[in-house]
Design goal:
- The structure holds 2 protein chains of 2 kinds.
- In chain A, helix 15 runs antiparallel to helix 16.
- By secondary structure, chain A is mainly alpha-helical.
- Chain A starts with a helix and ends with a helix.
- By secondary structure, chain B is mostly helical.
- Chain B has 13 helices and no strands.
- The longest helix of chain B is centred in the first third of the chain and has 40 residues.
- The chains are: A mainly alpha, B mainly alpha.
- At the A-B interface, helix 1, helix 2, helix 7, helix 8 and helix 10 of A face helix 1, helix 3, helix 4, helix 5 and helix 6 of B.
């Protein structure tokens, strides 16, 4: 490899096109090379068609079909128009589920971001063992959610869970709180765990953003007599804005489709009190075996994701332009 | 932040009787490895399934993502831009929608409970991510390098294998490791595509284990610790790749 690199360096300068011989045949050859390149991306296109477009089309079609268990045996699933959608919208749980999804998402985003930013600012100051400690904090993000969710399930246990024990000892609670078993607390509990899961991601991306802010700005501000809060408010926050936009939109797109955390902690219960659109879709399809309705909810979820995807793509474009 | 992890480790070493006492035991002084013995005997098979599925997915993902990234970044294949866009959008389709479709497809093709179905489904979590990371890395390889290889008489495949891949080794490792982790951690596809308990990956194994043995926290936590090993190993062995991978657009749902 090093010899190839050396030869590349020795090669006479001035030749700009990639083909060995420019000229009348060079053009033709370049054209052919361009199409030969297609061979490398064809598998990826086929993959996109087979594993994203086809399932997507299947889900949209299924949303208009009465697709049930018997459809699997008979292969027949009659088209029913918008019946699945009307059934879902009139489901007594639907309003609660949408509200839960909104609360879960908003709560997760706000606290993940605030705590992630605080940690990023903290690690942005150099101190011994900062690096290893920072990567240690990544562990919660890399662990299978089934594992961390299970650990939390035990921490939140009403009688032998350590959280209730600590709360009682500190007299912050007068009686054990049934985190996962009460309709009042279950949404709070799953949001709490999801915040914990998302903090490392926010921290890492925001830390990257902080690293890109030139230190001279802070020095100049300090000379002008700005205190720490002013520097944070007038330098860090504005310059972090593009990264913030990316973190929040990505976080949003990923939070509205969270499945594992809720499924492992509460299965959406009790009585649908921690149900979100994702677990609702799963329940309709795989517990009640109403695949058509499950697909309908899934498609509503796609609609939400597409809207935010558009916002996301716009924000990254703005960021790229700002970076130029 | 790290307390839940400590608490899991602590619990995995304590005898079950200590775990249901009214006051918690903070340090496992009278520890036992019984939980780990139970974990291996009940989850050993699931761990093997996970290992096989994860390794298979890594191979499949690299087979698709490496040539695609090479074609887009180095050969400037027509339609490369729209392929990038397609991958960006693909990451945003909710997993539950995919699961719904994959279930019916696997059922039609008689692939339910087959590791192959899981490999194919799990690859959808990793291909866009791997392709985007590899593409970014390959874009930074100077064109002179591959031109020189062509002058030396190497074909495109030869150039990719012996020039581009060695140079972009870090990105390939990142893509492979993250594909392994994503697949290892997958729960949604695993729980929807495996109905047969013996064929289930470890995530589903733990999930069903909790359902059946809710009081046996010591074995459950020991299984959790074992199932976390890939992430721990990854963090130690590949710390710098991980940091690079995360910042170049890693995403997880």
């Amino acid at each position: 490899m090093s010899t190839t690199a050396a030869r590349a360096a020795l090669r006479p300068a001035g030749r700009t096109d990639g083909s060995p011989q420019a000229g009348p045949t060079g053009n033709h050859r370049r054209h052919r090379a361009r199409w030969a390149a297609v061979a490398f991306v064809v598998p990826a296109w086929l993959y996109v068609a087979g594993f994203y477009l086809y399932p997507l089309a299947g889900s949209i079609r299924m949303g208009f079909q009465n697709y049930t268990v018997s459809s699997f045996y008979t292969g027949v699933a009659p088209y029913v128009g918008w019946a699945n959608y009307t059934a879902v919208l009139h489901d007594s749980h639907f309003g609660r589920t949408v509200l839960n999804t909104a609360l879960f998402t908003a709560g997760s985003l706000v606290f993940q971001f605030a705590i992630g930013l605080a940690l990023a600012v903290f690690f942005n100051r150099r101190f011994p063992l900062g690096g290893p400690l920072r990567s240690l904090l990544l562990v919660p993000w890399l662990l299978p959610l089934v594992v961390s969710g299970t650990a939390w399930r035990w921490i939140l246990d009403t009688d032998s869970g350590v959280l209730n024990h600590v709360l009682l000892q500190l007299h912050l609670a007068s009686h054990p709180i049934p985190w996962l078993a009460s309709t009042h607390d279950s949404l709070i509990a799953v949001t709490l765990v999801n915040i914990w899961v998302g903090i490392p991601f926010n921290m890492v991306i925001l830390y990257g953003g902080l690293q890109a802010i030139p230190g001279e700005l802070y020095e100049a501000a300090a000379l002008d007599g700005a205190n720490a809060w002013h520097r944070f408010r007038h330098i860090t926050l504005p310059l972090l804005r593009p990264v913030t936009a990316v973190v929040l939109t990505l976080g949003l797109i990923y939070t509205i489709k969270v499945f594992d955390v809720i499924m492992i902690l509460t299965q959406g219960g009790p009585a649908g009190s921690s149900q979100t659109l994702t677990t609702f879709a799963y329940n309709l399809s795989f517990q009640q075996l109403l695949f058509g309705r499950g697909a309908a909810v899934g498609n509503l979820l796609i609609l939400v994701a597409v809207v935010f995807a558009a916002v996301y793509l716009r924000s990254t474009r703005e960021q790229r332009q700002a970076g130029r | 932040m790290l307390f839940p992890l400590y608490w899991m480790l602590n619990a995995s070493l304590l005898p079950s009787t200590d775990l249901v006492k009214s006051s918690p035991t903070w340090i496992p002084l009278h520890g036992t490895l019984q939980g780990y013995r139970n974990a291996f005997s009940s989850q050993g098979g699931h761990l093997l399934v996970s290992l096989g599925v994860s390794a298979g997915t890594v191979v499949l993902v690299l087979l698709i993502a490496v040539p695609a990234a090479y074609g887009m970044a180095q050969l400037r294949a027509p339609g490369g831009r729209s392929l990038t866009f397609a991958f960006l959008i693909a990451q945003m389709i909710p997993g539950v929608v995919m699961a719904n479709s994959f279930y019916t497809a696997a059922n039609t093709l008689h692939l339910l409970n087959s590791p192959l179905a899981l490999i194919l489904a799990d690859s959808t979590l990793c291909v866009p991510f791997a392709a985007l990371i590899l593409q970014t890395a390959m874009r930074q390889v100077p064109a002179e390098l591959s031109e020189a290889a062509v002058l030396d008489g190497a074909g495109r495949i030869r150039t990719l294998l012996s020039v581009i891949l060695p140079v972009t080794r870090n990105a390939v490792i990142t893509a492979g490791l993250f594909s392994f982790l994503f697949t290892w951690a997958d729960f949604l596809f695993a729980v929807t595509l495996t109905t047969d308990d013996d064929r289930a990956p470890v995530t589903v194994g733990i999930y069903r284990f909790i359902g059946a043995h809710l009081s046996d926290w010591n074995s459950v936590m020991a299984t959790g610790i074992i199932a976390s090993l890939p992430a721990a190993v990854l963090l130690v062995v590949a710390q710098r790749y991980v940091a690079a991978g995360v910042t170049s657009g890693a995403v997880k749902d």
